[in-house]
Structures are given as C-alpha cells and as structure tokens.
UniProtKB/TrEMBL annotation:
Reactions mediated catalytically: 7,8-dihydroneopterin = 6-hydroxymethyl-7,8-dihydropterin + glycolaldehyde
Organism: Litorilinea aerophila
EC identifiers of the protein: 4.1.2.25
Encoding gene (name): folB
Boundaries of every Dihydroneopterin aldolase/epimerase domain copy: 10-121
Keywords assigned: Folate biosynthesis, Lyase
Function: Catalyzes the conversion of 7,8-dihydroneopterin to 6-hydroxymethyl-7,8-dihydropterin.
Xref: PANTHER family: DIHYDRONEOPTERIN ALDOLASE 1-RELATED
Protein name from the UniProt record: 7,8-dihydroneopterin aldolase
Record's GO cellular component terms: cytoplasm
One annotated GO molecular function: dihydroneopterin aldolase activity
Length: 130
C-alpha cells in the first residue's frame, strides 16, 4: 500500500438515504434519514493523464452500493452500519486504499442537529493483505 500522504482523496458528501438503524422499537419499524460522508484514498494520477473513467474509482458506483446497503440492511448500531459501508467502499475498487466514513442520524437526539460516528479504516485492516 502506498503511504496515505501520496494518495488522493475522492469525496462523497451529504449522501442522504432512508433506512432502518437503531435499537428502539420505533427505529426498527420506521425508516429514518441517514446522512453519509465518505472519503476514499486512491491514486488518481492515471485518470488525470488519460481522462478515462476506467482509470479511476467510479464514485457513482460506490454511492449506489452505499444507498442499496442502507435501504436493505437493518443494523441495530450505527457502528455496524459504518463498518459495513467502509467494507463496501473498499470492495468496490481495488484502488481504494483507505476510507474515512461518517454516518449520522439527523434529529435522533432532542436539541441536537445530528448524532453520528466517524471511522477510518485501511484496506489491509478490513480485507487483509494480499
């Protein structure tokens, strides 16, 4: 793996999806807004030279995978959802070497705009070396 300082960052910001996440009974039956922000570390130099989508991480493909997972999954914890979404980002393209991902539940706590979690994981940590 290249050092992170040598990699570029692809951002998916403010992806708003409705899904089931939470431990309370109403959270288990009623979909709620889930806000996702992801930063993918990858080398985009080849795409910068070629101007060809095949030479880079397709953020649309990644975003679609995130949406599909949130809409179909029903984890109890935001921590589980975040871990699953990071794995999806890493599995989407072998060029993704690390992911920082935030999952927020807007309005989940009274008087707070949002509550959430941010995690950072590397490819080796999640998928193993090899």
């Amino acid at each position: 793996m290249q050092p992170l300082s040598e990699l570029d960052r692809i951002h998916i910001r403010d992806l708003l999806v409705r899904g089931i996440v939470g431990i309370n009974p109403d959270e288990r039956k009623n979909r709620q807004d889930i806000l996702i922000n992801a930063t993918l570390w990858a080398d985009t130099r080849a795409a910068g030279r070629s101007d060809d989508i095949a030479d880079t991480v397709n953020y649309r493909t990644v975003a679609k995978a995130l949406i599909a997972h949130v809409e179909s999954g029903q984890p109890f914890l935001v921590e589980k959802l975040a871990a699953d979404l990071v794995r999806l980002c890493l599995e989407a393209d072998p060029r993704v070497q690390a992911v920082e991902l935030t999952v927020e539940k807007p309005g989940a706590v009274r008087f707070a705009r949002s509550v959430g979690l941010t995690i950072f994981r590397t490819r080796d940590e999640v998928l193993g070396k090899g």
